[in-house]
Design brief:
- By secondary structure, the chain is mainly alpha-helical.
- The protein has two helices and no strands.
- The chain has one domain.
């Protein structure tokens, strides 16, 4: 029983870490969308670096969300 409680506490910590990383990645994405993509005045130029950075952040968001789902499933 004590090992079960310890594992649950570790899983809670892991889930909280994943949520924090997810929040940070979402705020990074918001910054990229507002400052870099929406600030371009030209309709034809979308900003290749900004798009690449946005894609990278989106992959990180998906990764952290998957990690959270795994730790949540382990707690249940």
């Amino acid at each position: 029983m004590p090992l079960r409680q310890e594992e649950l506490e570790l899983r809670k910590g892991q889930a909280n870490d994943c949520l924090e990383k997810l929040r940070q990645a979402l705020s990074d994405r918001s910054v990229v969308l507002q400052e870099k993509l929406h600030s371009n005045k030209s309709i034809h130029h979308q900003g290749t670096r900004s798009t690449k950075e946005l894609r990278k952040i989106t992959l990180a968001i998906n990764k952290h969300a998957q990690e959270y789902r795994r730790s949540r499933a382990a707690m249940q």
